Amino acid sequence: MNRPLVITDCDEVLLHMLRPFSDWLGEEHGVDFPLDGNPFATPKFRRGETERMPDAEMWALLECFFDSEMGRQTEIPGAVATIAQLQRDADVVVLTNLQDRFNEARTRQLLDLGIGVQVFTNQGPKGAALARIVEQFSPARAVFIDDMAVHHHSAFEVIPHVSRLHFCGEPAVSPHIPCAHVAGHAHARIDSWDKALPWLIETLHGDAA
Predict the structure, then answer these.
(1) Residue 194 to residue 184: CA distance in whole angstroms
(2) I want to staple 119 with a disulfide (CB 3.0 to 4.6 A). Which of 107, 180, 197, 208 is the partner?
(3) How confident is the model at residue 41 (pLDDT cuts 50, 70, 90)?
C-alpha cells in the first residue's frame, strides 16, 4: 500500500508572505499594506498620493517580491518540525500558486529553511492540480492544506474524497478570511501547527480516517 500523502500550500501555511511583503512595500515603494481583513481587497495608495494604485500595479509588485525578496520570508512557527514529523510516515509535497518559473526558487527556498519537498506550481483554483498529484502518488490517504477558502471549494468539487484542512498561520489575517470549514468545504479549520499535527496524524493514520 502506498504511503499517505500531504499536499500543502506554502504562503501563510509554511512561510509568512503577507508580513514581509507589507514591510517591503513600505520600505521600498512607499505603499502602506495593512494586514487586516483581506489586504488585497482594499484600495492601496502611495504615501502622499490620492489616486488609487491600479490593481495591475499591485500584482506586478507582488511578482517583483517573488523575483527578488523571497529571502525575507520566515517560517510559520512549527512548520519545519511538523513537516519533518509528517515525512516519517507520509509523503509531503507543496502545491503553490506561483508561476512555473518560480518553481526552482521556491524549492530552494524551502530546502534552505529545512523543508525538503517536491514543489508543484499552479495558477488559479487548485482542484485540478490537486487531482493530478493524487493520481500521480496514488496514496492510501491524502490531506490537502491551504489558507484560502476558494481552493478548498475547488478541491471539494473536483476531488472530494481528499481530506481538507483550512490553515492560515498569519494571525493578523486569519480571523478575517472566509472559513472553508464553516462553508462546508473543509473538514477542519486549525491555524497553528501544534494543534494541527494531532489532527493530521489521526486523519492520515487513524482507524477513523
Answers:
(1) 23
(2) 107
(3) confident
